[in-house]
Amino acid sequence: MFEVREYPLTDDVAYLPNGWAYKVDMLVKSTDVPEGMNGFQVGRKSVAAVLSDLSTKGVKPIFMMLSFAFQTGITNAYITEILNGIKQLASKYKMILVGGDVNKANDTVIDCIIAGKYKKKVLRSGARIGDSVYVAGDFGLTTIGLDYLLNKKPIVNEKLKSYALKAVYEPDPPVNFNIEVINTGYVSASMDSSDGLAYTLNEIAQQSNVKIVINNFPMSEEIKKLIESEGRDPLNDSLYGGEEYQMVFTFNQEKDFLLNKLAKKHNVKVFKIGKVENGNGVFLSNGKKIEKKGWVFNF
Amino acid sequence: MFEVREYPLTDDVAYLPNGWAYKVDMLVKSTDVPEGMNGFQVGRKSVAAVLSDLSTKGVKPIFMMLSFAFQTGITNAYITEILNGIKQLASKYKMILVGGDVNKANDTVIDCIIAGKYKKKVLRSGARIGDSVYVAGDFGLTTIGLDYLLNKKPIVNEKLKSYALKAVYEPDPPVNFNIEVINTGYVSASMDSSDGLAYTLNEIAQQSNVKIVINNFPMSEEIKKLIESEGRDPLNDSLYGGEEYQMVFTFNQEKDFLLNKLAKKHNVKVFKIGKVENGNGVFLSNGKKIEKKGWVFNF
Fold first, then answer.
1. Domain range enclosing A224
2. Which residue from A9, A96, A113 is facing B4, i.e. has the nearest CB?
3. What was the pLDDT predicted at A254?
4. Nearest residue to B64 via CA among B39, B37, B89, B27
């Protein structure tokens, strides 16, 4: 409907030719906030979602704007909690607040706009045959946490329960790690996984016109065992979840050592989960197709 | 709560040191949309409000982002109308859409973010003794229109009714005129009047630490007579309204001819309504104080 030209609206952030990039994300209480999430976590999540998208595309956050709509009846204490959650991440990444707006509405809404600078653009469409496929962070935990919160599915193991709830309530994208990884120059495609891993992998494969073959679990051995101990399928939980706010990317396999160095430096877990091949679609190494679907949550 | 340093959050737009400026404004259906306003007008208003703020500060709009929340049950036809309204102003001012977000909520919300470039900064605080005080456009019409829509106060004259409703439904800030006026370099203070003229004048007087004396009506003779014919007070209607989205500004009185030239070029009405003097507060020339109050509308 508008002129878009060099700014592809289909990708995750708006890269402008002058080295700046922008991202906006709206958090809506009635649809994005699961039961039990407190105000601090709500505010924090509204910023974390944008930081995940930006850093996954190599953009260093610089300044932010915030538009709020507060539901009638909301308390000042709750608003303060939201602001404290926002402030935590704004301070952590030294972002400057330059503007905003405050309104009343029939829902509570936080629209977070962040601008930053990039050195290298990375699109969804650049995956190259021969690259390795990586994820940062454990996948599967948000699926289990949301299953517990939304569907009342019990989690027997207390450790897993605490990991799973933390993953849902306090998504923590490794912003500086993500940016450094992109700036190595060896990431050919990357995307934030908030729509689910199966969806994200299919999106990269489609846009890059390649085949992706998955041959490893996107989680630590510890988490895998904990998930199995619940009688759940770790692969299914990691593929068809969402809300992880972690980076899924393809990387030059001859430069793996650089990635491992950065992971160590930033204390971030990375998992090599597959490879890019000639063809189309996303498959397990046993040939089973991974469909392009996420788990649509309705809070 | 955040570092703000050179970006004063108390002013209308965020001027960044690199020549870019930003403004965000959230339109909420349940509080910003009066009865009878159609989808096209809703979309249009969400952009007009931001354009008014930016152009009043000399910022030429360049690109935009849009975050939407749509209320459950909203029709596709209504969404299309909203987008068409947005598109009208985006096309008129050749803005490029670079990003956005779409959500579901218990209200319909449009958060419009526009970035643009400025040559000269104009704050609320720069009014100088001896300057003339100006407004662009007729004031008073939105007060009458909103009184009709919200309080069912009849408007007898059909011409006035159509002017008043158009002022409410289709605010039309003269963007290019505003920017050219600022770029003359003779505007010492300016502010968008969406909070009402009395409020705006008081804000400029306070921030500039000057007295403003009002000695003329901020409307054409035609509008003044039409308002009087309804048994209403044109001065009261023009001072204590709001939602005009017009520029209120102080201008070097020796350069009035430049302003009149621009008004003619852009076919915009300007009214010299008063002068800046030594002292404090806002007064009529008969000495009556104009209080800092707007009309708070509750739709």
1. 132-284
2. A96
3. 96
4. B89
Q: Determine whether the interchain pair B31/A103 forms a contact, defined as Cβ–Cβ distance below 8 Å.
A: yes
Sign of the four-CA dihedral A219, A220, A222, A228: positive
| Cross-chain Cβ contact A67/B111 below 8 Å | yes
Residue by residue, pLDDT tens for chain A (299 residues) are: 344 344 445 568 999 988 999 999 999 999 999 989 999 999 999 999 999 999 999 999 999 999 999 998 999 999 999 999 999 999 999 999 999 999 999 999 999 999 999 999 999 999 999 999 999 999 999 999 999 999 999 999 999 999 999 999 999 999 999 999 999 999 999 999 988 999 999 999 999 999 999 999 999 999 999 999 999 999 999 999 888 999 999 999 999 999 999 999 999 999 999 999 999 999 999 999 999 987 655 44
Contacts of B99 in chain A (CB under 8 A): 7, 9, 13-14, 22-24
Q: How far apart are CA A125 and CA B162, in angstroms?
A: 53
CA B75 to CA B276: how far, in whole Å? 51
Based on the structure, what is the number of domains in chain B? 2
Interface residue A236 vs chain B (CB under 8 A): no
Q: Do A30 and B106 touch (CB under 8 A)?
A: yes
* pLDDT for position A296: 54
Q: Check whether residue A58 and residue A157 sit in a common domain.
A: no
Contacts A16 to B, Cβ<8 Å: 63, 98
Does residue B7 sit within a domain? Answer: no
Those residues with Cβ within 8 angstroms of residue A166's Cβ, 6 or more apart along the chain or in another chain: A141
Q: Which residues contact A155 (CB under 8 A, 6 or more apart)?
A: A144, A148, A161, A164, A230
DSSP assignment string, B187-244: EEEEEE-TT-HHHHHHHHHHHHT-EEEE-S-SS-HHHHHHHHHTT--HHHHHHS----
Task: Yes or no: say if A86 and A45 are a contact pair by the CB < 8 Å rule.
Answer: no
Looking at the structure, tell me whether residues A214 and A275 fall in a common domain.
yes
The predicted complex's ipTM stands at: 0.91
One domain, residues A67 and A102: yes
For residue B57, the domain's CATH number is 3.30.1330.10
Token pair 């017009």 is found at B246
Q: CA A149, CA A152: separation in Å to the nearest integer?
A: 6
Q: Establish if A2 belongs to a structural domain.
A: no
Say how far residue B152 (Cα) sits from the centre of its chain. Answer: 24
Residue A289 placed within a domain = no
Cα separation, A135 vs A251, whole angstroms: 10
Q: Is the domain of A244 the same as that of A168?
A: yes
| B24 with A98: Cβ contact below 8 A | no
d(CA A237, CA A219): 11
CB contact under 8 A, A105 and B109: yes
Same domain as B194, residue B99: no
Q: B127-163: per-residue pLDDT in tens?
A: 999 999 999 999 999 999 999 999 999 999 999 999 9
**B207 φ, ψ (degrees, to nearest 5):** -65, -30
Instruction: List the end-to-end C-alpha distance of chain A, in Å, as a whole number.
Output: 31
CATH code: domain of residue B154: 3.90.650.10
Q: Are residues B106 and B136 in the same domain?
A: no
